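Notebook entry, structure prediction.
Reason for the run: the old model in the group folder had no record of what sequence produced it. Starting over properly, with the input documented here first.
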Amino acid sequence: PLPGASIVLLGTSPPIGSVSDIDGNFRIEKIEVGRHSLQVSFLGYKMATIPNIYISSAKEVVLLVELEEKVFESQEVVITASVDKTKALNQMAVVSARTFSVDETSRFAGSFRDPARIVANFAGVTASGDQRNDIIIRGNSPLGVLWRVEGLDIPSPNHFTQQGANGGPISILNNNLITNSDFFTGAFPAEYGNALSGVFDIKLRNGNNEKHEFIGQLGMNGAELSAEGPLPVKQRGSYLLSYRYSTMQIFDKIGISFGTAGIPKYQDISYKFHVPTEKSGVFSLFGLGGISNIRIIGSEQEAIEKQAGLKENKNSNFGTDMIASGLSHTFYYDNNLFHKLIIGFSGQRRRVSVDSLPLNGDPPFISYIDSTQSGKSTISYYLNKKINSRHIVRLGAIADWYQLDLKEKYYDEILDTYISLRDFGGATSLFQSYINWRFKPNDYLLFTSGLHLQYFAYNQSSSLEPRIGLSWNFAPRKSLSLGYGHHSQMQQLETYFYESRDSLGNTLKTNEDLGFTYTHHIIASYDWAFLPNFRLKIETYYQSLYNVPVYGNASSSFSTLNLGAEYGLLPSLDSLDNKGTGINYGLELTLEKFFSNNYYFLLTGSLFDSKYKGSDGVLRNTVFNGNFVFNVLAGKEFVVKKVNIFSIDAKVTTSGGNRYTPIDMEASKLYGEEMLKDDLAYSQQFDTYFRADIRLGYKRNAKKVAHEWAFDIQNIFDTENVLLQLYDEETNKIEFAYQLGIFPVVLYRIEF
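New structure, fully documented this time:
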């Protein structure tokens, strides 16, 4: 903490300000409703300006302000800096990283206030589809993304996460609890491991430690109630809680389609308790969790459910549960040395069953069961040392202990018996350690380097990964940056325990010795803040992937690089070998006007190519190779009666259509099921994707209460974008499943 820091509210007459107390806390009262900017200064540190802080009539604003120490001081040189929105919060990040502000990005049209859908507007990122929030980073599988909340690595924080996926239709992460967080698209610092493409580093805000406040919210995403306020402890602790329950049954009654035959039902909770102490450091208890379920009636199914293998005589029950919780302890030995310890648990469960009704009149029976549970206990620790204003070193380690109960089987009608795909109960572990070094010789150069070590105990796989970054501010508001990262990721846990059978009927686990998949990622970046609140960024990259699992006993186009966005059952994962490769390269452009003077815009464009080789050695497009994506977003606020705000936001997205493998019609008719032309894998592409969204919002401030209404129309022109194709066994024809059509989303929110 910095006692005695000067805080001034800009643009007020007479000036309004405050000075931080011995614990670094400050308070400013009697501020007019609206947007304001705050300036913070302290001797020996760069001045910080925090713009566009929205003050409502019902809710206090709690800020965490961090100041950067000056590298040198001189009576002749004055160095000041505003909060740099173009950079990440993580001081070790140099390239392919940015902070996303909840206040700014919650207004993006079509985002559902979902972090994954928000970042899909950034350069290099593509949404896999309208129905789910899986994100494709630079042509990589969504499975390559790491999710981290408050320093704890967690499983997919989404409802209805399918087997082999990292996304879902509805996020469990609550936008009301998130504060400014980091998003990485490559060459990330050494503290992040077990990921190939990107990282979400989500931060949860602290609750108000002086006043009890509440938020009620009703919309397509559910009915929600949040509460926050001070804890009954001496050291100004706080709590923050939120609970949400699905309301989709209500909207189904009025005829709104969700792109599926069933009605999704779900509920979730998020929380954070923040307890600072006088001598023992700061303790935080945090977590999130959710349960979800949907029942799909075979006779009412949509085309997208047919892709999952459902027929009219089959009903499906699909449910998922997810939990993540942690206790953290941060202790400052002095102003230059601190540690953070996290003890946590996370897990997920998948509950799937398919009921079949025989056509001959026999009683119904269960033809498929997937009962998968995985839990993970985690201890994470790092020590951060600021040697001086030029050097910072961070050392850390993460230990994960997995507890697994994996069961999956199906009924074989020919053999008249159940065939097991997985039947494993046991434990294993993953260990990671790292060191980061940040060297800033002056205010124009920044060098970062690090090493990440990873070890998987189940089959003794290991990896040592260097990370390097360099940034040069060669002119005022202009910088060049270079970054390199060697990264690895273990396979999805279910892959190691896939069961197959030899000619004698013996059960085999042929994937137990699979090693990590690796990638080299090289990035160059040019950044120009050509005007206040304006920014131009150009970034180019090359990524080489190797040790990719492909079929080891057959010549095939299959590669795990193409997994992660299926809407049906996974392909056979029998007898895989680490012999596949892949390459991704591209060019990205960002032109951005940050929110100021009541408006903003964001233009992003990406040109890229994503290729791979399976066991047949043929260089092909990956399923994620859309080749291009462009986004245009803009919005403006209008002040009404001095204290209320009307806003309008719009978004247009266009991208290359989804890749697909042609269906072999003759073979499909012969065998009575969909057969693909493997030699032409992902050689075809659907028409260009296009979608336009618009959002209208109104905020009304009354005495001690604030209201917000929002009306979001997704795909306002009702454009038909093809998601996938499939073979209909009954008609012997090809059917198409489409992305969401015009889709209205309503929201009401009250703060008090």
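Summary: The radius of gyration is 26 Å.
The old model has been moved to the deprecated folder.
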